[in-house]
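From the shared-data thread, chain only:
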Amino acid sequence: MSNVRQQTAPMPYKHHSYFANARREQRYLLPFVCFSCRKVFRKPFAREARLCPQCRGLLTMLNRKFSAPKATDLRQWRKVALLVEHGFVFHSVYRSTPDGRHTRAAYPKNLAEVPAFAAEFASQAIAKPLGAAVAGTSKLVRWQMPGVA
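Structure, as tokens:
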């Protein structure tokens, strides 16, 4: 008697490996920021908008590289809000070098550097971050890249 099982091709949609694994989708906890409370909540990725558990305002999802400033540091929170408003959610931003290579650029350290940074890297900005409300409506938008309808 042999302990070797016969290998047969699984039928489509009958085997669990054909479906998305919920654990893989929630591998990282991402920062969801409330700018009115100046708090960050680490939650799994969500396609729908989330509400702040304290003030019921919209949370904005940022990249997992984001490091929150202290709640009392208003200047840094204004800097973060202005960067998000310009479409920078703390994803990697690259600067071209004369020899054709790309090097990672550092995010601005203070509020005064934000306009120059936003102008230089406008092509790498995300049009509307998750959770951003469309002006004048209560409709929420999802991630949108520039030039994509």
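The two ends are 61 Å apart (CA to CA).
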